[in-house]
Amino acid sequence: MNRRNMSKGEKLVMVYRASGEAEALIIKGLLESNSIPCLLKSNAAPSVHMFAVDGMGEVKVMVLDSVADRAKKLIRGGKHGRD
Q: Which one of 13, 23, 48, 57 is most buried, counting C-beta atoms within 10 A?
């Protein structure tokens, strides 16, 4: 994450809810390869829950609010998030 944007008070928003760490890492790679930094947020340690049971292994993909629309388009398969 860009510290400059965070210091300006720009908030993080969830753009994707993955059922596990492996899926979240794929989405993270897609976003970062398109110059969109992101964070993964989970309530459980990855080694504890290898799969999601009632959302326990769920991982949220978070990006800065200013790039959230572009990130969502990329995740949906939009051409470089600019269509």
A: 57
Q: What is the pLDDT of residues 58-81, one digit of tens each?
A: 999 999 999 999 999 999 996 554
Q: Which pair of tokens denotes residue 55?
A: 């959302």
**pTM of the full predicted structure?**
0.74
User: Of 3, 4, 9, whose CA–CA distance to 65 is shortest?
Assistant: 9
Tokens encoding 56: 């326990």
Distance, CA of 78 to CA of 76 (rounded, Å): 6
* Multiple choice CATH, 3-77, 1.20.58.100, 3.60.9.10, 3.30.70.100, 3.30.70.790: 3.30.70.790
